[in-house]
Amino acid sequence: MHTRPRLLTSIPFWVLVAGSLAAIIGGLAIVLNGITAMEEVLNDPNATVVQVYVGQSWVVVGAAVLGAGAVGIVAVLALGAATALTRRPDVAVESIDLSRDDETVAEPAAAVYPPATAAEPIAAPIAVEDADIETPSTAPAPARAAAETGHDAPKLDAGTRHDEPRLDAGDDAPRR
Questions:
Q1: Which of 26, 66, 114, 142 is least enclosed by beta carbons within 10 angstroms?
Q2: What is the pTM of this model?
């Protein structure tokens, strides 16, 4: 299926085209009026310096506007060439059947589970595992972890051993 290029429907593209053409037309008008005014003043023996040099300034301004319009037209041509050279993937268009009057959507039926009876065995609890640990939660704990099972419990006799720092000593306790 052939589709229109997106560039032809782009508002900024057409603003660039219109602005560039307006700048070219405006710049040409300023340049031609400035050159005509300079020719008339230069042929007049009673012309003042202001009349001669103001015409030159207007011609320079008109040339700058004309050049900006020309750069805009070059940008329009470059955008057109880039759009023509790039492929856009075909988009599948879904057709809507307007002859159907169905406005309701079929709701999925809720799954019905029979209640558990006393004769059925109760399922084993689900084992939850950490994502970063690769051993299953049903595996026995390592020896060191089994020894430290009470690590959250407060240590009442902390600091009585010489190889263990005291918890209540603070920063001024001697370190060994």
A1: 114
A2: 0.47
